[in-house]
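thread from #wetlab-drylab

HS: before we spend reagent money on co-crystallization trials with magnesium ion, can we at least see a predicted complex? here's what I'd submit
DV: go for it
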Amino acid sequence: MRLSQFFLPLIKENPSEAQIVSHRLMLRAGMVRQLTAGIYNWLPLGLMVLRNIENIIREEMNKSGAIEVLMPTLQPTELWKESGRYDALGKEMLRFPDRAERELLYSPTCEEVITDIVRTNFKSYRDAGKNLYQIQWKFRDEIRPRFGVMRGREFLMKDSYSFDIDYEGAKKTYNLMYDTYLRMFSRMGLTAVPVRADSGAIGGDLSHEFHVVADTGESALYYDVAFDDIRDGKVKMTTEEMRQLYAAADEQHKPGTIPKERLREARGIEVGHIFYLGKKYSSAMNATVPGTNGENITLDMGCYGVGVSRLVGAIIEASHDDNGIIWPESVAPFKVGIINLRVGDAKCDEMCGKLYEMLQSKNVSVLYDDTNERAGGKFASMDLIGLPWQVTIGPKGAEKGMVELKNRRTGEKVEVSVEMALDNLLNNKVIYDKRFLTAT
Ligand code: ATP
Ligand code: MG
Protein backbone atom coordinates (compact mmCIF):
# COMPACT_ATOMS: atom_id res chain seq x y z
CA MET A 1 0.00 0.00 0.00
CA ARG A 2 1.23 3.47 -0.88
CA LEU A 3 0.61 5.89 1.93
CA SER A 4 -0.43 8.55 -0.59
CA GLN A 5 -3.32 6.29 -1.61
CA PHE A 6 -4.17 4.95 1.84
CA PHE A 7 -6.65 6.30 4.37
CA LEU A 8 -4.66 6.90 7.53
CA PRO A 9 -5.89 9.93 9.47
CA LEU A 10 -3.17 10.37 12.11
CA ILE A 11 -3.51 12.73 15.06
CA LYS A 12 -0.43 14.55 16.37
CA GLU A 13 -1.69 15.73 19.76
CA ASN A 14 -2.98 13.49 22.51
CA PRO A 15 -6.78 13.31 22.25
CA SER A 16 -8.31 14.57 25.49
CA GLU A 17 -11.09 11.96 25.58
CA ALA A 18 -8.66 9.05 25.96
CA GLN A 19 -7.65 8.01 29.48
CA ILE A 20 -5.46 5.02 28.73
CA VAL A 21 -2.55 4.55 26.40
CA SER A 22 -4.14 2.02 24.04
CA HIS A 23 -7.15 4.23 23.44
CA ARG A 24 -4.90 7.24 22.88
CA LEU A 25 -2.70 5.36 20.43
CA MET A 26 -5.60 3.81 18.54
CA LEU A 27 -7.05 7.27 17.95
CA ARG A 28 -3.71 8.83 17.10
CA ALA A 29 -2.77 6.01 14.74
CA GLY A 30 -6.04 6.40 12.85
CA MET A 31 -7.32 2.94 13.77
CA VAL A 32 -10.75 3.78 15.17
CA ARG A 33 -13.11 6.71 15.67
CA GLN A 34 -15.97 6.82 18.12
CA LEU A 35 -19.36 7.18 16.45
CA THR A 36 -21.29 7.49 19.68
CA ALA A 37 -20.69 6.31 23.26
CA GLY A 38 -19.03 2.86 23.19
CA ILE A 39 -19.62 2.40 19.44
CA TYR A 40 -16.69 2.67 17.06
CA ASN A 41 -15.93 3.01 13.39
CA TRP A 42 -13.02 0.79 12.42
CA LEU A 43 -10.74 2.61 9.99
CA PRO A 44 -8.47 0.64 7.61
CA LEU A 45 -5.42 0.28 9.87
CA GLY A 46 -7.52 -0.82 12.84
CA LEU A 47 -9.55 -3.19 10.73
CA MET A 48 -6.38 -4.88 9.44
CA VAL A 49 -5.28 -5.65 12.99
CA LEU A 50 -8.76 -6.80 13.97
CA ARG A 51 -8.80 -9.18 10.99
CA ASN A 52 -5.35 -10.55 11.83
CA ILE A 53 -6.45 -11.29 15.38
CA GLU A 54 -9.62 -12.88 14.07
CA ASN A 55 -7.61 -15.12 11.77
CA ILE A 56 -5.36 -16.38 14.54
CA ILE A 57 -8.43 -17.18 16.63
CA ARG A 58 -10.11 -18.90 13.68
CA GLU A 59 -7.02 -20.99 12.92
CA GLU A 60 -6.62 -22.12 16.51
CA MET A 61 -10.32 -22.87 16.93
CA ASN A 62 -10.34 -24.89 13.72
CA LYS A 63 -7.21 -26.74 14.84
CA SER A 64 -9.02 -27.70 18.04
CA GLY A 65 -11.78 -29.27 15.98
CA ALA A 66 -14.36 -26.55 16.63
CA ILE A 67 -16.67 -25.69 13.74
CA GLU A 68 -17.54 -22.18 12.59
CA VAL A 69 -21.11 -20.95 12.25
CA LEU A 70 -22.59 -17.48 12.05
CA MET A 71 -25.64 -16.46 14.02
CA PRO A 72 -27.52 -13.20 13.45
CA THR A 73 -26.94 -10.12 15.59
CA LEU A 74 -30.71 -9.87 16.14
CA GLN A 75 -32.70 -12.44 18.08
CA PRO A 76 -36.33 -12.89 19.11
CA THR A 77 -36.78 -12.47 22.86
CA GLU A 78 -38.93 -15.63 23.12
CA LEU A 79 -35.85 -17.83 23.41
CA TRP A 80 -34.72 -15.82 26.42
CA LYS A 81 -38.06 -16.36 28.11
CA GLU A 82 -37.57 -20.09 27.57
CA SER A 83 -34.12 -20.12 29.11
CA GLY A 84 -35.30 -17.97 32.01
CA ARG A 85 -32.81 -15.20 31.28
CA TYR A 86 -35.21 -12.62 29.86
CA ASP A 87 -34.69 -10.33 32.84
CA ALA A 88 -31.26 -11.52 33.93
CA LEU A 89 -29.21 -9.02 31.92
CA GLY A 90 -31.40 -6.04 32.79
CA LYS A 91 -30.65 -2.87 30.88
CA GLU A 92 -27.47 -4.30 29.37
CA MET A 93 -29.73 -6.06 26.88
CA LEU A 94 -31.01 -3.82 24.11
CA ARG A 95 -34.57 -4.72 23.09
CA PHE A 96 -36.87 -3.18 20.56
CA PRO A 97 -40.02 -4.07 18.64
CA ASP A 98 -40.07 -4.77 14.91
CA ARG A 99 -42.91 -3.47 12.69
CA ALA A 100 -45.14 -6.35 13.73
CA GLU A 101 -44.55 -5.39 17.36
CA ARG A 102 -42.53 -8.54 17.96
CA GLU A 103 -39.75 -7.93 20.42
CA LEU A 104 -36.19 -8.34 19.18
CA LEU A 105 -32.89 -7.93 20.94
CA TYR A 106 -29.37 -7.21 19.80
CA SER A 107 -27.38 -10.26 20.84
CA PRO A 108 -25.25 -9.79 23.98
CA THR A 109 -24.36 -13.53 23.87
CA CYS A 110 -25.75 -16.58 22.09
CA GLU A 111 -26.39 -19.51 24.45
CA GLU A 112 -30.10 -19.45 23.64
CA VAL A 113 -29.76 -19.31 19.86
CA ILE A 114 -27.09 -22.00 19.65
CA THR A 115 -29.06 -24.27 21.97
CA ASP A 116 -32.05 -23.77 19.70
CA ILE A 117 -29.95 -24.71 16.67
CA VAL A 118 -28.69 -27.83 18.39
CA ARG A 119 -32.02 -29.06 19.75
CA THR A 120 -33.62 -28.87 16.33
CA ASN A 121 -30.70 -30.32 14.38
CA PHE A 122 -28.88 -32.89 16.53
CA LYS A 123 -30.56 -36.22 15.83
CA SER A 124 -28.72 -38.61 18.12
CA TYR A 125 -25.80 -39.01 20.53
CA ARG A 126 -23.60 -39.32 17.45
CA ASP A 127 -24.12 -35.62 16.74
CA ALA A 128 -22.83 -34.63 20.17
CA GLY A 129 -19.20 -33.88 21.01
CA LYS A 130 -19.30 -30.75 18.86
CA ASN A 131 -18.00 -27.30 19.65
CA LEU A 132 -19.63 -24.60 17.50
CA TYR A 133 -18.16 -21.12 17.28
CA GLN A 134 -18.68 -17.80 15.61
CA ILE A 135 -16.95 -14.45 15.39
CA GLN A 136 -19.74 -11.91 15.56
CA TRP A 137 -20.63 -8.46 16.90
CA LYS A 138 -22.34 -8.22 20.25
CA PHE A 139 -24.14 -5.40 21.96
CA ARG A 140 -24.27 -4.78 25.69
CA ASP A 141 -25.57 -1.48 26.92
CA GLU A 142 -22.75 -1.10 29.45
CA ILE A 143 -23.36 1.50 32.18
CA ARG A 144 -19.90 2.90 31.72
CA PRO A 145 -18.42 2.26 28.29
CA ARG A 146 -14.82 3.40 28.52
CA PHE A 147 -11.22 2.94 27.52
CA GLY A 148 -12.10 2.87 23.82
CA VAL A 149 -12.63 -0.61 22.40
CA MET A 150 -11.71 -2.19 25.75
CA ARG A 151 -15.18 -1.70 27.15
CA GLY A 152 -17.40 -0.83 24.26
CA ARG A 153 -21.12 -1.26 23.91
CA GLU A 154 -20.80 -2.85 20.50
CA PHE A 155 -17.83 -5.22 20.35
CA LEU A 156 -16.56 -8.20 18.40
CA MET A 157 -16.50 -11.53 20.21
CA LYS A 158 -15.51 -15.05 19.41
CA ASP A 159 -18.05 -17.18 21.20
CA SER A 160 -18.25 -20.93 21.14
CA TYR A 161 -20.54 -23.44 22.71
CA SER A 162 -19.87 -27.14 23.19
CA PHE A 163 -22.37 -29.94 23.48
CA ASP A 164 -21.20 -33.21 24.98
CA ILE A 165 -22.92 -36.39 26.08
CA ASP A 166 -21.58 -36.38 29.62
CA TYR A 167 -19.43 -34.54 32.13
CA GLU A 168 -16.29 -36.42 31.09
CA GLY A 169 -16.73 -35.26 27.53
CA ALA A 170 -17.51 -31.69 28.58
CA LYS A 171 -14.42 -31.60 30.80
CA LYS A 172 -12.24 -32.83 27.96
CA THR A 173 -13.58 -30.09 25.70
CA TYR A 174 -13.01 -27.55 28.47
CA ASN A 175 -9.37 -28.59 28.84
CA LEU A 176 -8.91 -28.50 25.09
CA MET A 177 -10.18 -24.90 25.05
CA TYR A 178 -7.86 -24.02 27.92
CA ASP A 179 -4.89 -25.18 25.84
CA THR A 180 -6.25 -23.56 22.68
CA TYR A 181 -6.64 -20.20 24.42
CA LEU A 182 -3.09 -20.23 25.72
CA ARG A 183 -1.86 -21.00 22.23
CA MET A 184 -3.93 -18.34 20.50
CA PHE A 185 -2.93 -15.59 22.92
CA SER A 186 0.70 -16.57 22.73
CA ARG A 187 0.54 -16.35 18.93
CA MET A 188 -0.59 -12.74 19.40
CA GLY A 189 2.54 -12.03 21.44
CA LEU A 190 0.63 -12.13 24.73
CA THR A 191 1.14 -14.12 27.87
CA ALA A 192 -2.35 -14.52 29.23
CA VAL A 193 -2.73 -15.66 32.82
CA PRO A 194 -5.58 -18.15 33.21
CA VAL A 195 -7.15 -17.32 36.55
CA ARG A 196 -9.77 -19.30 38.37
CA ALA A 197 -13.02 -17.41 38.09
CA ASP A 198 -16.48 -17.46 39.56
CA SER A 199 -18.47 -20.39 38.25
CA GLY A 200 -21.70 -18.89 39.55
CA ALA A 201 -24.70 -21.10 40.12
CA ILE A 202 -23.07 -24.01 38.28
CA GLY A 203 -20.37 -24.45 40.90
CA GLY A 204 -17.31 -26.59 40.40
CA ASP A 205 -13.92 -25.34 39.33
CA LEU A 206 -14.42 -25.24 35.60
CA SER A 207 -14.31 -21.51 34.99
CA HIS A 208 -11.21 -19.62 33.95
CA GLU A 209 -10.68 -16.08 32.79
CA PHE A 210 -7.63 -15.27 30.68
CA HIS A 211 -6.04 -11.97 31.61
CA VAL A 212 -3.36 -9.82 30.05
CA VAL A 213 -1.33 -8.22 32.80
CA ALA A 214 -1.48 -4.41 32.48
CA ASP A 215 -1.74 -1.57 34.99
CA THR A 216 -4.88 -0.33 33.28
CA GLY A 217 -6.69 -3.66 33.75
CA GLU A 218 -10.03 -3.60 35.52
CA SER A 219 -9.50 -6.80 37.57
CA ALA A 220 -7.19 -7.56 40.47
CA LEU A 221 -5.10 -10.68 39.82
CA TYR A 222 -3.23 -12.91 42.26
CA TYR A 223 -0.95 -15.47 40.73
CA ASP A 224 2.15 -17.60 41.01
CA VAL A 225 5.35 -15.81 39.98
CA ALA A 226 5.91 -18.62 37.45
CA PHE A 227 3.51 -16.86 35.06
CA ASP A 228 5.83 -13.84 34.98
CA ASP A 229 8.77 -16.16 34.43
CA ILE A 230 7.00 -17.77 31.48
CA ARG A 231 6.28 -14.33 30.00
CA ASP A 232 9.88 -13.25 30.46
CA GLY A 233 11.13 -16.45 28.85
CA LYS A 234 12.84 -17.64 32.05
CA VAL A 235 10.96 -20.93 32.17
CA LYS A 236 8.99 -23.09 29.80
CA MET A 237 5.96 -25.04 30.96
CA THR A 238 3.37 -27.33 29.50
CA THR A 239 -0.25 -26.30 29.83
CA GLU A 240 -0.70 -29.27 32.17
CA GLU A 241 1.94 -27.82 34.48
CA MET A 242 0.40 -24.36 34.17
CA ARG A 243 -2.94 -25.73 35.21
CA GLN A 244 -1.42 -26.65 38.58
CA LEU A 245 -0.22 -23.09 39.28
CA TYR A 246 -2.14 -20.80 41.55
CA ALA A 247 -4.00 -17.91 39.90
CA ALA A 248 -7.22 -16.20 40.93
CA ALA A 249 -9.11 -13.01 40.18
CA ASP A 250 -10.67 -10.60 42.64
CA GLU A 251 -12.95 -12.30 45.15
CA GLN A 252 -11.80 -15.77 44.07
CA HIS A 253 -8.45 -15.16 45.72
CA LYS A 254 -7.82 -17.09 48.92
CA PRO A 255 -4.92 -15.51 50.83
CA GLY A 256 -2.40 -17.98 52.15
CA THR A 257 -2.85 -20.57 49.39
CA ILE A 258 0.71 -20.14 48.18
CA PRO A 259 3.80 -18.79 49.97
CA LYS A 260 4.05 -15.00 50.03
CA GLU A 261 7.28 -14.94 48.07
CA ARG A 262 5.65 -16.75 45.15
CA LEU A 263 2.53 -14.59 45.08
CA ARG A 264 2.24 -11.74 42.58
CA GLU A 265 -0.49 -9.12 42.59
CA ALA A 266 -1.28 -7.22 39.42
CA ARG A 267 -4.05 -5.71 37.35
CA GLY A 268 -5.45 -7.68 34.43
CA ILE A 269 -7.49 -7.16 31.27
CA GLU A 270 -9.90 -10.04 30.67
CA VAL A 271 -9.48 -11.18 27.07
CA GLY A 272 -11.14 -14.57 27.31
CA HIS A 273 -13.36 -16.67 29.49
CA ILE A 274 -14.06 -20.40 29.43
CA PHE A 275 -16.98 -21.73 31.38
CA TYR A 276 -18.58 -25.10 32.05
CA LEU A 277 -22.34 -24.62 31.79
CA GLY A 278 -23.58 -28.08 32.61
CA LYS A 279 -27.24 -28.52 31.75
CA LYS A 280 -28.42 -25.03 32.57
CA TYR A 281 -29.58 -24.21 29.05
CA SER A 282 -30.01 -27.70 27.65
CA SER A 283 -32.47 -28.67 30.34
CA ALA A 284 -34.35 -25.34 30.33
CA MET A 285 -34.66 -25.48 26.56
CA ASN A 286 -34.94 -29.21 26.15
CA ALA A 287 -31.79 -29.88 24.13
CA THR A 288 -31.70 -33.64 24.32
CA VAL A 289 -30.62 -36.49 22.05
CA PRO A 290 -31.46 -40.18 22.12
CA GLY A 291 -28.59 -42.29 23.46
CA THR A 292 -27.49 -45.79 22.44
CA ASN A 293 -30.53 -47.37 24.04
CA GLY A 294 -32.93 -44.68 22.95
CA GLU A 295 -32.82 -43.00 26.36
CA ASN A 296 -33.00 -39.18 26.49
CA ILE A 297 -29.66 -37.52 27.13
CA THR A 298 -29.65 -33.86 28.13
CA LEU A 299 -26.55 -32.34 26.58
CA ASP A 300 -23.69 -31.13 28.75
CA MET A 301 -22.56 -27.67 27.68
CA GLY A 302 -19.65 -25.28 27.92
CA CYS A 303 -19.17 -21.77 26.57
CA TYR A 304 -15.96 -20.05 25.59
CA GLY A 305 -15.59 -16.35 24.79
CA VAL A 306 -12.78 -14.20 23.45
CA GLY A 307 -12.92 -10.40 23.29
CA VAL A 308 -11.67 -9.93 19.74
CA SER A 309 -11.97 -6.13 19.56
CA ARG A 310 -10.82 -5.77 23.19
CA LEU A 311 -7.67 -7.69 22.23
CA VAL A 312 -6.61 -4.90 19.87
CA GLY A 313 -6.44 -2.56 22.87
CA ALA A 314 -4.97 -5.20 25.18
CA ILE A 315 -2.11 -5.95 22.79
CA ILE A 316 -1.26 -2.24 22.63
CA GLU A 317 -1.39 -1.96 26.44
CA ALA A 318 1.15 -4.80 26.55
CA SER A 319 3.31 -3.56 23.69
CA HIS A 320 4.09 0.13 23.17
CA ASP A 321 6.64 2.80 24.07
CA ASP A 322 6.69 6.59 24.27
CA ASN A 323 6.72 6.87 20.49
CA GLY A 324 3.76 4.65 19.77
CA ILE A 325 2.56 1.13 19.16
CA ILE A 326 4.91 -1.84 18.76
CA TRP A 327 2.99 -4.55 16.92
CA PRO A 328 3.91 -8.19 17.37
CA GLU A 329 4.54 -9.39 13.82
CA SER A 330 1.63 -11.84 13.91
CA VAL A 331 -0.99 -9.10 14.17
CA ALA A 332 0.80 -6.12 12.58
CA PRO A 333 -1.23 -4.30 9.92
CA PHE A 334 1.88 -4.29 7.70
CA LYS A 335 5.14 -6.06 8.38
CA VAL A 336 7.31 -3.39 6.80
CA GLY A 337 7.22 0.39 6.38
CA ILE A 338 9.33 2.00 3.68
CA ILE A 339 10.26 5.63 4.18
CA ASN A 340 11.31 7.57 1.12
CA LEU A 341 13.23 10.56 2.47
CA ARG A 342 13.23 12.46 -0.81
CA VAL A 343 10.26 11.84 -2.99
CA GLY A 344 11.04 13.17 -6.46
CA ASP A 345 14.71 12.19 -6.32
CA ALA A 346 15.09 9.70 -9.17
CA LYS A 347 17.42 7.33 -7.27
CA CYS A 348 15.31 7.33 -4.09
CA ASP A 349 12.08 6.81 -5.98
CA GLU A 350 13.54 3.97 -8.00
CA MET A 351 15.02 2.15 -5.04
CA CYS A 352 11.93 2.53 -2.89
CA GLY A 353 9.70 1.49 -5.77
CA LYS A 354 11.79 -1.61 -6.45
CA LEU A 355 11.90 -2.68 -2.83
CA TYR A 356 8.16 -2.09 -2.55
CA GLU A 357 7.43 -4.24 -5.62
CA MET A 358 9.80 -6.99 -4.50
CA LEU A 359 8.26 -7.26 -1.04
CA GLN A 360 4.77 -7.25 -2.45
CA SER A 361 5.59 -9.92 -4.99
CA LYS A 362 6.77 -12.12 -2.09
CA ASN A 363 3.55 -11.45 -0.16
CA VAL A 364 5.20 -9.36 2.52
CA SER A 365 2.73 -6.69 3.56
CA VAL A 366 4.28 -3.25 3.21
CA LEU A 367 3.29 0.37 3.65
CA TYR A 368 5.32 2.73 1.48
CA ASP A 369 5.50 6.33 2.68
CA ASP A 370 5.70 8.09 -0.68
CA THR A 371 4.30 11.37 0.62
CA ASN A 372 5.97 14.78 0.65
CA GLU A 373 6.07 15.11 4.43
CA ARG A 374 9.24 16.16 6.21
CA ALA A 375 11.63 13.41 7.34
CA GLY A 376 10.93 14.05 11.04
CA GLY A 377 7.20 13.70 10.53
CA LYS A 378 7.65 10.50 8.54
CA PHE A 379 9.77 8.90 11.26
CA ALA A 380 7.31 9.90 13.96
CA SER A 381 4.34 8.54 12.02
CA MET A 382 6.07 5.26 11.28
CA ASP A 383 6.96 4.82 14.96
CA LEU A 384 3.42 5.73 15.98
CA ILE A 385 1.74 3.08 13.83
CA GLY A 386 4.26 0.54 15.07
CA LEU A 387 5.13 -1.63 12.05
CA PRO A 388 7.76 -4.21 13.09
CA TRP A 389 10.33 -3.16 10.46
CA GLN A 390 11.23 0.17 8.90
CA VAL A 391 13.37 0.67 5.83
CA THR A 392 14.56 4.23 5.26
CA ILE A 393 15.97 5.30 1.94
CA GLY A 394 17.58 8.72 1.45
CA PRO A 395 19.63 10.28 -1.37
CA LYS A 396 23.05 9.56 0.20
CA GLY A 397 22.34 5.88 0.79
CA ALA A 398 20.55 5.46 -2.51
CA GLU A 399 23.72 6.63 -4.26
CA LYS A 400 25.56 3.60 -2.76
CA GLY A 401 22.66 1.16 -2.87
CA MET A 402 22.34 1.30 0.93
CA VAL A 403 19.28 1.54 3.14
CA GLU A 404 18.69 1.88 6.85
CA LEU A 405 16.85 -1.03 8.44
CA LYS A 406 15.24 -0.47 11.82
CA ASN A 407 13.66 -2.89 14.23
CA ARG A 408 10.75 -1.04 15.85
CA ARG A 409 10.83 -3.08 19.06
CA THR A 410 14.53 -2.85 19.88
CA GLY A 411 15.13 0.43 18.09
CA GLU A 412 18.27 -1.06 16.55
CA LYS A 413 19.27 0.39 13.20
CA VAL A 414 21.76 -0.87 10.66
CA GLU A 415 22.86 0.40 7.29
CA VAL A 416 22.80 -2.46 4.82
CA SER A 417 22.59 -3.03 1.11
CA VAL A 418 19.09 -3.17 -0.25
CA GLU A 419 19.65 -6.85 -1.05
CA MET A 420 20.53 -7.61 2.54
CA ALA A 421 17.51 -5.71 3.80
CA LEU A 422 15.34 -7.71 1.48
CA ASP A 423 16.96 -10.97 2.56
CA ASN A 424 16.38 -10.04 6.19
CA LEU A 425 12.74 -9.20 5.65
CA LEU A 426 11.96 -12.19 3.49
CA ASN A 427 13.73 -14.77 5.58
CA ASN A 428 12.94 -13.39 8.99
CA LYS A 429 16.56 -13.00 9.95
CA VAL A 430 17.25 -10.99 13.03
CA ILE A 431 18.72 -7.59 12.60
CA TYR A 432 21.87 -8.36 14.55
CA ASP A 433 22.84 -11.16 12.22
CA LYS A 434 26.68 -11.01 12.06
CA ARG A 435 26.69 -9.97 8.42
CA PHE A 436 24.66 -6.93 9.28
CA LEU A 437 27.00 -5.96 12.07
CA THR A 438 30.01 -6.08 9.79
CA ALA A 439 28.10 -4.15 7.18
CA THR A 440 27.56 -1.17 9.46
P1 ATP B 1 -16.41 -8.12 31.75
O1 ATP B 1 -16.26 -8.67 33.14
O2 ATP B 1 -15.15 -7.46 31.24
O3 ATP B 1 -17.63 -7.29 31.57
P2 ATP B 1 -17.82 -10.43 30.86
O4 ATP B 1 -17.59 -11.40 31.94
O5 ATP B 1 -19.08 -9.67 30.83
O6 ATP B 1 -16.59 -9.38 30.81
P3 ATP B 1 -18.07 -12.47 28.83
O7 ATP B 1 -19.54 -12.47 28.86
O8 ATP B 1 -17.34 -13.62 29.39
O9 ATP B 1 -17.52 -11.11 29.46
O10 ATP B 1 -17.60 -12.20 27.32
C1 ATP B 1 -16.48 -12.83 26.71
C2 ATP B 1 -15.37 -11.83 26.41
O11 ATP B 1 -15.86 -10.70 25.71
C3 ATP B 1 -14.74 -11.24 27.66
O12 ATP B 1 -13.73 -12.10 28.16
C4 ATP B 1 -14.16 -9.94 27.16
O13 ATP B 1 -12.87 -10.15 26.62
C5 ATP B 1 -15.10 -9.55 26.04
N1 ATP B 1 -16.00 -8.46 26.45
C6 ATP B 1 -17.01 -8.52 27.35
N2 ATP B 1 -17.62 -7.33 27.49
C7 ATP B 1 -16.98 -6.49 26.63
C8 ATP B 1 -17.14 -5.10 26.31
N3 ATP B 1 -18.09 -4.35 26.87
N4 ATP B 1 -16.30 -4.56 25.37
C9 ATP B 1 -15.35 -5.31 24.80
N5 ATP B 1 -15.15 -6.61 25.07
C10 ATP B 1 -15.94 -7.20 25.97
MG1 MG C 1 -19.65 -7.78 31.37
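DV: The longest helix spans residues 167-187.
HS: ok that's useful, forwarding to the group
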